[in-house]
């Protein structure tokens, strides 16, 4: 039978304040994606906001192309923290039986829309049509499938997973008629392919907010180097503040990063529209996480609900926020098992 | 006493007295089998089948045992290395729901069709490349270059031309497999002893008859090796092509299954996917290529039974 | 006009070689294999080529067969495509003995039944009845050579079917055979030759064989290959035959020793 | 008038009177070159180089011309099929910023290192597979099966085991290239005429000497063909591996560049990426494999120079 | 004890074959190549094997060389590893002539300078001076055979260096050579044989050659291969020699015709 000792290192330190750990880490390996939904990450990197707060700790930013590799890298210990979609973050927590990762802050919310061909005016018009989402089990995929289930359209609407750029191309050609996409792709479909918005996902959530991007940290790293994580969070707070204050500057910073990372920037109209649909906040909207986890089951991308209790660890974030004179965010009781 | 000396060559065998010396040597001697002459008298049918089936099964059992041991030792957490049992369960789940047949059918029939088309294109292409100097000079390096293009590179082009249809998938598969098979054939033809095409020529064989009666059969061993590699390319390209999109029209194949496992960070799903792909690969090798190879080589007296 | 003229001159010639040169390789590595060969073979004539090892006999046959291009000079054939028996057996390793012999017939589009009959006949001619289903690698050296002989005979018979003069080029066809089998096959070859009126260019290193089989014996010198002498040996028997053998042998010895000395 | 007849074989050549008959035939006759004997007298150095360089350049020019024509006809919208000029501009941009050298260097040096390691592993593996019956029976089909596993399947495992390091990338490359090279070597060895190892044996060559002096050189043509395919596999696997992540340590390679183009559906970038990959593929073929092949075949008298 | 006893008996024997059987294939396809061969070769003895094409001579050599396993029976060698010259030339196509001949010396670990000297010596022995840098495919058939001869001589010289009796197995080594070259090389072979005291088992299809070279001629019958007769032909000259040739030839003819009739 299987010995259980191996995982002790990653046992949650849920009681008491995070202990002093092993002092600041030598380096922090931070994952992120070249997407506008990761704006605070991109701005923080572009403006050097993380480095400033991390002091002697060397920041190693790592750009990922897919969530899978980022989570595997976290699992494998070659990544310490990453910005990631809320859906995959839950998955990363659940698949490691609640051991590998902790959510330490929100980053962005909202910013996903169901955009359709102009002739589609209601959900009933979607019957027999194809709707695209970016990837099986990602945030928008779950949202669409949950929504379809609610409207009892599950078997009447075809769901196709394709990369965002391909979705745009297919939409232009008319081989797909609708897409549930995150920014900036919903904006690009509207602006470049004449799509119209049938539904903004924020309308489905009470208060109009839901987590889109969050910051997760490897549990081991959190236990060993709380100061470093705190530094990272300070940088993130600064970056979110900056983004809110100087939207134009943030847009420039994002485009600069995108240009460097992918060789292409977003055009002004797209980034403007994307920014209006997104909101950048440190609140992970913890209260909604259990619902998201339920939705995954409803959407049939997970067999069983992930128990999200213990997933959050917002103490460091709240320390930073209160220290900066801002209001603390609520963990909705999910910071305890 | 020279005959006590190591160098003294003494071969002793008697008809039907159990395993012949050469065989036992082969099993024990490892590398020494490099020099073992063909085993003497014929072995029984049962023993021959056993000799073919036991070693791979032994290898598989050994592999699973090591895996189980590593897992039990819990060096790595469960979510990184699931136990063989977990995989077994996932697999069994696929079998129970019948999904496994759908996955296999979707991918295998596509790969087979793609491969056959590739063969039909690559064979004349390979013949031209091998025998017409100007064709070789003009596009030979290009064909080799194409081989090294990753299949995903063709995905955008395929989608633009053919949309999200099977045609796109076949295009990606063909671009993977054709250069490989053609190159294999070229290599095979290059190695033909020059006397054989000359024999064809003096017998008055025209270009086509020469290709049909001399070049292709003479190049067969190399051609088969190229086909094997071509099959690998088409199967791998298919896996890449199946990632283009998952949609009800296209149906789910193994590539999609693997990809879904990776998007959901579901290691058991990923490993099951890998094993399924491997099973297909090994199965095709054992059922198609190994027998073909054996027949080809035996007919030419190139391999000891 | 030139053609018509040539035609008139050549009706008596099956193969005409004029000032044939063949050089292998270039620069300092060049080997002059043939250096100005002039030779004519009449239709139905049996010519034996003898010469030292490496003097260019095989090269000459290859040139006649069109398998190599001469460096200079001119080759004219008025026959149908020659049947060739190579010095190496050159059997197709993936075909059975039967199918190897059948191959020229298949290529010529002969029907299945006729092919089978022909192959059986040729197999018994070369004393290999019952080995039709074996593969070349299961045969002894001499057996392979006999299969190659049978194949070239199949090719010759086929080639001569189109009404033109036929031609056979044979490169040491009996070298791997014991004396007795060789005698038998020599007799068979002569029988086939007489029956079909095929011109034969026959390379051998056995002067006795050359005299026995040939109507004319041509001696090549080596490095460079030239025609040094010719003997008419048609119909010689008894002591005439052995005298010819001795003469030719002596000349051969002389040619080789000059070469060795040079 | 038999000599006017088609069948009359008449070869006429004179020393140094321009292009020999065979050559002209080869250029004009297309498929007839199948039967053309080797061109007579030696050609000049300049003409030989021209013969090697002109056909591929001609093919490239033809290709670009067709492309430009299709683009000019505007059958497909610009964003799906950019003009050759646009590509030229993107490419020039890469060259001006020097980025192209970084991309090429990162990918090519990784591929080369990976390939060399793969060679070092695959050669003994191939020898064992080819000559030790039990090894072949046990893992032969597995090696062929592994070949057909898409590289991306290894990515999760590689990332978990080796993290975001070059080691991960090399693991993916090795798993792609090793089975292919090993299989090529096995195919090469299987085709060795059995007499040659026997000669080695009677000369008293031991296992290693036999491998070194007989098997490897005798299998070289087939081995080279396998190496070529192995290179293609390692290059393709590298493209897959480079998608894992990009960080300052890992650097950006061609795979990453291509992926960026694809995730934006930016056709000029995609096509530039494809062309760069192709250039590397063709370059390696022309600079490494083609000369090696030529030497190997020429030494064996297998190809008319 | 058995070993010691055998030892005493065998000191006079280089090769001993006892009731040797060799069957190729199984079931209905089986070919009995050798059917109870008993033969002993003394150290330093020159034995010639003759027999019809396909009677099993090559098979017998392969068994002695350890390249095939007998179906039953027993082979005992007291010599060092035999040097073998195969019926096919079996040259390594990727090696130059020089390196082909050098190969057995390299494998035996002979130093570079010594190897080069030895190869030059052997090349001139087989009259191929100056062809060292050519590849096998650039040679004529007879030249290849001579290279193979030189290589087997290199191997023999090497094999005998360890103080034991040496053994050479030669399978029709002169079959592709013209009469003159053959005479020269026969003389060279005899010289080498006398100088080194090597036992030789020599397959040939030329009875004259067998009588000229051998001390003993062994005649194999074909299908199944058995020893039908042996002749002591040591030191025969003149008319004795041609008488022996005639006797053996007649017997060979008789054996072959019985077979053909059967
Ligand atoms: N492909 C080639 N390349 C270079 N040299 C060659 C080639 N073929 C033959 N030669 C050379 O040409 C000469 C004549 O060779 P050829 O094979 O015609 O001799 P041969 O008379 O048939 O000899 P043998 O009786 O030994 O078969 C030889 O010196 C040989 O080395
Ligand atoms: N590998 C094999 N498989 C099957 N049969 C074989 C094999 N090798 C030899 N034989 C058969 O064994 C018999 C003897 O062959 P072997 O080669 O010993 O003849 P040989 O006396 O050397 O003849 P030759 O003088 O023609 O070389 C032949 O009938 C041949 O068909
Ligand atoms: Mg010759
Ligand atoms: Mg033999």
TrEMBL record, chains B, D:
GO terms for biological process: transmembrane transport. The keyword Transmembrane applies. It is a multi-pass membrane protein. Residues 1-22 are annotated as: Disordered. Gene3D superfamilies: MetI-like. It comes from the Bacteria. CDD domains: TM_PBP2. It is found in: Cell membrane. Pfam families: BPD_transp_1. The chain crosses the membrane at residues 49-74, 111-130, 142-163, 169-189, 269-292. Residues 104-288 form the ABC transmembrane type-1 domain. One of its GO terms (cellular component) is plasma membrane. Keywords: Cell membrane, Membrane, Transmembrane, Transmembrane helix, Transport. PANTHER family: ALKANE SULFONATE ABC TRANSPORTER-RELATED, MEMBRANE SUBUNIT, TRANSPORT SYSTEM INTEGRAL MEMBRANE PROTEIN. Belongs to the binding-protein-dependent transport system permease family. This is NitT/TauT family transport system permease protein. It comes from Actinokineospora terrae.
TrEMBL record, chains C, E:
InterPro entries: AAA+_ATPase, ABC_transporter-like_ATP-bd, ABC_transporter-like_CS, ABC_transporter_ATP-bind, P-loop_NTPase. Keywords: ATP-binding, Nucleotide-binding, Transport. Residues 15-247 form the ABC transporter domain. CDD domains: ABC_NrtD_SsuB_transporters. The keyword Transcription regulation does not apply. The keyword Repeat does not apply. One of its GO terms (molecular function) is ATP hydrolysis activity. PROSITE patterns: ABC_TRANSPORTER_1, ABC_TRANSPORTER_2. PANTHER family: ALIPHATIC SULFONATES IMPORT ATP-BINDING PROTEIN SSUB (PTHR42788:SF13), TAURINE IMPORT ATP-BINDING PROTEIN-RELATED (PTHR42788). This is NitT/TauT family transport system ATP-binding protein. It comes from Actinokineospora terrae.
């Amino acid at each position: 039978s299987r010995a259980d000792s191996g995982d002790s290192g990653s046992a949650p330190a849920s009681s008491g304040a995070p202990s002093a750990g092993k002092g600041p880490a030598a380096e922090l390996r931070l994952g992120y994606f070249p997407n506008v939904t990761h704006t605070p990450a991109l701005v923080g990197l572009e403006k050097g906001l993380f480095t400033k707060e991390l002091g002697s700790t060397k920041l190693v930013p790592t750009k990922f192309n897919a969530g899978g590799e980022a989570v595997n890298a976290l699992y494998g210990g070659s990544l310490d923290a990453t910005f990631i979609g809320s859906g995959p973050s839950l998955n990363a927590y659940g698949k490691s039986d609640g051991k590998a990762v902790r959510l330490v802050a929100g980053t962005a919310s909202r910013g996903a829309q169901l955009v359709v061909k102009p002739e589609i005016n209601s959900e009933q018009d979607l019957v027999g049509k194809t709707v695209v989402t970016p990837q099986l089990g990602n945030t928008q995929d779950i949202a669409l499938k949950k929504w379809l289930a609610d409207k009892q359209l599950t078997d009447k609407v075809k769901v196709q997973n394709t990369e965002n750029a391909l979705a745009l191309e297919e939409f232009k050609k008319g081989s797909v008629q609708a897409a549930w996409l995150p920014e900036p792709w919903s904006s690009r479909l509207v602006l470049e392919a004449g799509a119209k918005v049938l539904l903004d996902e924020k309308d489905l959530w009470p208060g109009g907010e839901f987590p889109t991007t969050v910051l997760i940290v490897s549990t081991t790293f959190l236990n060993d180097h709380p100061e470093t994580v705190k530094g990272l969070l300070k940088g993130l707070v600064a970056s979110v503040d900056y983004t809110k204050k100087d939207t134009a500057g943030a847009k420039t910073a994002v485009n600069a990063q995108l240009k460097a990372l992918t060789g292409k920037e977003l055009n002004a109209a797209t980034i403007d529209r994307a920014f209006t649909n997104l909101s950048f906040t440190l609140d992970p909207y913890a209260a909604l996480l259990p619902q998201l986890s339920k939705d995954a089951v409803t959407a049939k991308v997970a067999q069983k609900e992930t128990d999200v209790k213990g997933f959050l660890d917002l103490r460091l974030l709240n320390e930073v926020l209160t220290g900066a004179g801002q209001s603390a965010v609520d963990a909705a009781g999910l910071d305890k098992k | 006493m020279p005959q006590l000396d190591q160098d003294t060559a003494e071969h002793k065998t008697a008809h039907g007295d159990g395993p012949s010396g050469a065989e036992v040597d082969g099993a024990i001697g490892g590398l020494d089998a490099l020099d073992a002459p063909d085993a003497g008298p014929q072995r029984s049918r049962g023993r021959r089948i056993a000799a073919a089936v036991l070693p791979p099964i032994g290898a598989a059992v050994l592999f699973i045992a090591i895996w189980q041991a590593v897992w039990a030792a819990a060096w790595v957490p469960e979510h990184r290395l699931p136990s063989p049992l977990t995989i077994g369960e996932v697999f069994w789940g696929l079998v129970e729901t019948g999904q496994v047949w759908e996955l296999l059918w979707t991918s295998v029939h596509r790969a087979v069709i793609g491969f056959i088309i590739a063969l039909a294109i690559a064979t004349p292409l390979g013949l031209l490349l091998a025998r017409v100097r100007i064709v070789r000079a003009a596009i030979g390096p290009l064909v080799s270059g194409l081989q090294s293009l990753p299949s995903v590179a063709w995905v955008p082009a395929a989608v633009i031309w053919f949309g999200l249809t099977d045609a796109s998938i076949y295009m990606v598969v063909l671009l993977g497999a054709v250069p490989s098979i053609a190159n294999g054939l070229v290599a095979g033809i290059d190695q033909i002893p020059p006397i054989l095409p000359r024999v064809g020529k003096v017998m008055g064989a025209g270009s086509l008859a020469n290709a049909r009666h001399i070049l292709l059969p003479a190049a067969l061993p190399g051609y088969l090796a190229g086909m094997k590699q071509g099959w690998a390319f088409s199967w791998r390209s298919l896996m890449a092509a199946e990632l283009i999109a998952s949609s009800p029209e296209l149906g789910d194949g193994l590539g999609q299954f693997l990809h879904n496992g990776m998007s959901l960070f579901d290691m058991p799903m990923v490993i099951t996917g890998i094993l399924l792909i491997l099973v297909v690969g090994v199965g095709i090798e054992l059922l198609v290529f190994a027998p073909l190879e054996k027949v080809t080589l035996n007919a030419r007296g190139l391999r000891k039974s | 006009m030139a053609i018509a003229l040539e035609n008139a001159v050549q009706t008596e010639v099956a193969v005409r070689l004029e000032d044939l040169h063949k050089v292998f390789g270039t620069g300092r590595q060049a080997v002059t294999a043939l250096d100005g060969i002039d030779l004519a073979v009449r239709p139905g004539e049996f010519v034996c080529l003898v010469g030292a090892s490496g003097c260019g006999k095989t090269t000459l046959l290859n040139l006649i067969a069109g398998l190599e291009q001469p460096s200079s000079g001119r080759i004219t054939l008025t026959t149908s495509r020659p049947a060739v028996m190579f010095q190496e057996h050159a059997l197709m390793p993936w075909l059975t003995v039967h199918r190897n012999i059948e191959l020229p017939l298949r290529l010529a589009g002969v029907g299945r039944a006729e092919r089978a009959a022909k192959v059986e006949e040729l197999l018994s001619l070369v004393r290999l009845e019952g080995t039709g289903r074996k593969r070349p690698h299961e045969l002894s050296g001499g057996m392979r050579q006999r299969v190659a002989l049978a194949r070239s005979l199949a090719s010759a018979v086929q080639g001569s079917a189109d009404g033109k003069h036929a031609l056979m080029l044979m490169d040491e066809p009996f070298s791997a055979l014991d004396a007795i089998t060789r005698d038998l096959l020599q007799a068979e070859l002569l029988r086939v030759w007489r029956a079909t009126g095929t011109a034969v260019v026959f390379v051998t290193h056995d002067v006795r064989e050359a005299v026995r089989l040939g109507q004319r014996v041509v001696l090549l010198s080596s490095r460079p290959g030239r025609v040094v002498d010719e003997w008419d040996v048609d119909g010689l028997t008894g002591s005439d035959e052995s005298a010819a053998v001795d003469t030719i042998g002596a000349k051969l010895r002389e040619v080789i020793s000059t070469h060795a000395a040079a």
